[in-house]
Design goal:
Number of helices: 2
InterPro entries: BrnA_antitoxin
Radius of gyration: 20 Å
Pfam families: BrnA_antitoxin
Shape: elongated
Number of strands: 0
Distance between the termini: 69 Å
Protein name: BrnA antitoxin of type II toxin-antitoxin system
Organism: Treponema bryantii
Structural class: mainly alpha
Largest sheet: none
Protein backbone atom coordinates (compact mmCIF):
# COMPACT_ATOMS: atom_id res chain seq x y z
CA UNK A 1 0.00 0.00 0.00
CA UNK A 2 1.07 3.54 -0.64
CA UNK A 3 1.51 6.07 2.14
CA UNK A 4 -0.56 8.64 0.19
CA UNK A 5 -3.16 8.49 -2.57
CA UNK A 6 -4.10 11.28 -5.00
CA UNK A 7 -7.88 11.76 -5.17
CA UNK A 8 -7.69 15.19 -6.81
CA UNK A 9 -9.07 13.77 -10.09
CA UNK A 10 -11.72 11.65 -8.40
CA UNK A 11 -15.42 12.03 -9.20
CA UNK A 12 -18.45 11.77 -6.94
CA UNK A 13 -20.28 8.44 -7.05
CA UNK A 14 -23.22 9.05 -9.44
CA UNK A 15 -25.30 6.47 -7.53
CA UNK A 16 -24.71 7.97 -4.07
CA UNK A 17 -28.15 9.64 -4.04
CA UNK A 18 -29.80 6.29 -4.78
CA UNK A 19 -28.23 4.46 -1.85
CA UNK A 20 -30.49 3.08 0.85
CA UNK A 21 -30.76 4.89 4.15
CA UNK A 22 -30.68 3.14 7.48
CA UNK A 23 -33.61 3.95 9.77
CA UNK A 24 -35.21 2.60 12.90
CA UNK A 25 -38.78 1.36 12.52
CA UNK A 26 -41.05 -0.37 15.00
CA UNK A 27 -42.81 -3.45 13.64
CA UNK A 28 -45.09 -5.96 15.33
CA UNK A 29 -43.54 -9.33 16.17
CA UNK A 30 -46.07 -10.97 13.85
CA UNK A 31 -44.86 -8.84 10.92
CA UNK A 32 -41.20 -9.57 11.58
CA UNK A 33 -41.86 -13.30 11.91
CA UNK A 34 -43.82 -13.31 8.64
CA UNK A 35 -40.98 -11.71 6.68
CA UNK A 36 -38.30 -13.80 8.40
CA UNK A 37 -40.16 -16.96 7.37
CA UNK A 38 -40.40 -15.65 3.83
CA UNK A 39 -36.66 -14.90 3.96
CA UNK A 40 -35.93 -18.52 4.86
CA UNK A 41 -38.05 -19.73 1.94
CA UNK A 42 -36.50 -17.37 -0.61
CA UNK A 43 -32.95 -17.05 0.70
CA UNK A 44 -33.24 -13.26 0.64
CA UNK A 45 -32.66 -11.08 3.72
CA UNK A 46 -35.98 -10.16 5.32
CA UNK A 47 -35.09 -6.45 5.27
CA UNK A 48 -34.80 -6.61 1.47
CA UNK A 49 -38.19 -8.32 1.20
CA UNK A 50 -39.82 -5.64 3.37
CA UNK A 51 -38.16 -2.97 1.19
CA UNK A 52 -39.49 -4.61 -2.00
CA UNK A 53 -43.01 -4.76 -0.54
CA UNK A 54 -42.88 -1.09 0.39
CA UNK A 55 -41.35 -0.15 -2.96
CA UNK A 56 -44.24 -1.94 -4.68
CA UNK A 57 -46.65 0.19 -2.64
CA UNK A 58 -44.86 3.32 -3.83
CA UNK A 59 -44.84 2.26 -7.49
CA UNK A 60 -48.51 1.23 -7.43
CA UNK A 61 -49.46 4.33 -5.39
CA UNK A 62 -51.26 2.14 -2.88
CA UNK A 63 -52.98 3.89 0.03
CA UNK A 64 -53.89 2.36 3.35
CA UNK A 65 -57.58 2.35 4.17
CA UNK A 66 -58.07 2.41 7.91
CA UNK A 67 -61.46 1.78 9.46
CA UNK A 68 -61.92 2.46 13.16
CA UNK A 69 -64.49 0.40 15.01
CA UNK A 70 -66.65 2.39 17.40
Amino acid sequence: MRDNYDFSKGIKNPYADRLKKQITIRLDDQVIEYFKNMAEETGMPYQNIINYYLLDCVKEKKHLEVAFIK
